Amino acid sequence: MNLKHLFDRKPDSYSVHYEEQQAASVFADHLLTLLPPPGSCPVVFAFIGTDRSTGDSLGPLVGTLLEEKKVTAFHMYGTLENPVHAVNLTEKLALIEKEHEHPFIVGADACLGRLKSVGHIQIGKGPVKPGAGVNKQLPAVGEAHITGIVNVSGFMEFFVLQNTRLHLVMSMARVIADGIAKASIRYSASALLQQSLSQSDQDLKHQAAMYAKQLFKKDIES
Questions:
Q1: What is the pLDDT of residues 79-93, one digit of tens each?
Q2: 3-state DSSP call for residue 45?
Q3: At what angle do helices 23-34 and 202-221 cross, to 10 degrees?
């Protein structure tokens, strides 16, 4: 059996098209490589966007889908009901810092790109920069980022976002939400296994993390 560590490093950024086979599982694999070890600090997802613009609704759609899935391993901000958007972004970031001690934040947002990149979901190190596509000056968000390319950039970006197909955005949101949910199960499993072992036994803790990946990966992808 080929056992791989749950947190084996992959490239700093990765892109997967939402229609690719096992897109959510591949997304989960790469998300896990970016997260801190379980139990070391709270992991917070900030889903940025608004339901007043079809193209910009990717973030809150993901947040709403995850709320329905009742994912508990991570903390979530930004849903269709309570969005995190340009007007309240600074306030929400301050709230996150107040509510969580030294959080590891993953910022997620829609973006525009080249025609051949539309439908791709990107995940990687470093913050997301909301508003960049429509020339808004907003604070960068997160130690890691998730971006979904929902339409083509280069001309009348605000109009393009307003006229993006909801079907595309919803399909991408489902893949991202499924990927985060899959990652949360494996992340929680690793945390529970490590907590059950002696703090001094690093070899057993390492094996626990590897075991969690193999134990849940097959069931999750079935």
A1: 999 999 989 999 999
A2: strand
A3: 160
The domain made up of 13-181 is a member of CATH 3.40.50.1100 = no
Check residue 84 and report its DSSP letter: B
Whole-structure pTM value? 0.82
Rounded Cα gap, residues 134 and 118, in angstroms: 17
Q: What are phi and psi of 170, to 5 degrees?
A: -65, -40
Domain ranges in the chain are 13-181
Q: What is the 3-state secondary structure (H, E, C) of 2-44?
A: CCCCCCCCCCCEEEEECCCCCHHHHHHHHHHHHCCCCCCCCEE
Q: How far apart are the first and last CA of the chain?
A: 19
Per the CB < 8 A criterion, the answer to whether 109 and 161 are in contact is no
CA 83 distance to own-chain centroid: 16
